[in-house]
Write a structure and sequence with these properties.
Mean pLDDT: 79
Largest sheet: 11 strands, antiparallel
Distance between the termini: 149 Å
Low-confidence stretches: 15-31, 37-84
Radius of gyration: 44 Å
Structural class: alpha+beta
Strand content: 35-45%
Length: 301
């Protein structure tokens, strides 16, 4: 009887051990499955060069950084819509003359008042507006406006009709200064007889005064204009003996000049004739308190 009881106990112990072992193995398997699922969620699929999804090896050969070789067509890529002309178009980046550019559709574009300088080959403009804003081209001819000149392959010397020596001008300048106020008015009307065109220089500057000696002072001032051109006056005023009105005779050379300058400072020519100083008062500390100048019939050369 004892043998039977012993056999039953051994059977019960063996059954319990087997169940626990199966439970443990199942827990381990479930844990592995859970960890694999978490790994798949945290590590998304990588797209291979062939477009398939899977694990990509990161060997030195396939690494996408320093050793990666991009296709030649990427290295040769250029944007289609560009304003400049590249060497690939067989067009020189810089030029001095139109014949250095390929074909009649290009011209050598230069800065204003830089006729002898270096430029860039660009396409000639088309469809110019019929607005009359005469300019003097580097070819020495007057063109209807800048666009028409450039369409003919001509750069701009200065934005006025080409001066022919028959031009006239009137001049007015009035300056007043006090410790609490400064007033500058005046203009030069520059008229072209050939083209029936008048240009205004209507932005006068403050006058500058320097004593040359005990008798004379040099006065300098200028008039600006919207197109970038200017007229610069420089003349001597006799202080001793002092008298008004005082005549200033402008000429192309000498002590009294009135230079017409292009935007970059090139001297185009000179106003000539007599102007009259009607008011003059120098400031003890330098500069001027009062200065009035008038001229009604100046010529040009």
């Amino acid at each position: 009887m004892k043998g039977i009881y012993l056999l039953i106990c051994i059977s019960i112990v063996f059954t319990v051990f087997s169940c626990e072992n199966r439970t443990s193995l199942k827990d381990v398997a479930d844990k592995d499955i859970t960890e694999n699922e978490d790994k798949e969620i945290s590590e998304p699929d990588t797209e291979t060069p062939d477009g398939e999804t899977g694990d990509m090896e990161t060997s030195d050969k396939d690494a996408p950084f320093p050793d990666t070789e991009y296709p030649d067509e990427m290295a040769d890529y250029e944007a289609e819509d560009v304003d400049h002309i590249s060497p690939d178009d067989d067009v020189p980046v810089s030029c001095n003359f139109n014949d250095q550019c390929p074909g009649d559709q290009y011209y050598c574009e230069k800065e204003e008042d830089d006729c002898e300088g270096e430029g860039m080959c660009v396409l000639r403009p088309t469809g110019c507006d019929d607005i009359y804003e005469p300019v003097c081209g580097c070819d020495g001819n007057t063109h209807g406006n800048k666009c028409y000149a450039n369409a003919e392959g001509v750069n701009i010397f200065y934005p006025l009709p080409c001066i022919e020596g028959e031009e006239t001008a009137t001049l007015k300048y009035d300056y007043e200064w006090s410790p609490v106020n400064e007033k500058i008015t005046g203009k030069i009307e520059f008229s072209f007889k050939t083209f029936d065109w008048t240009h205004l220089f209507e932005f006068p500057s403050q006058p500058e005064r320097v004593n040359v000696d005990s008798t004379y002072s040099r006065i300098t001032l200028f008039y600006g204009s919207l197109n970038g051109m200017s007229i610069h006056l420089s003349f001597l005023f006799q202080r001793e003996p002092f008298k008004l009105p005082y005549d200033v005779v402008f000429a192309a050379t000498g002590d009294n000049t009135a230079e017409l300058r292009a935007q970059n400072g090139t001297v185009i020519g000179h106003l000539t004739g007599t102007a009259e100083v009607t008011r003059y008062e120098a400031r003890i500390t330098g500069g001027m308190n009062i200065l009035t100048i008038e001229a009604s019939d100046l010529g040009f050369e």
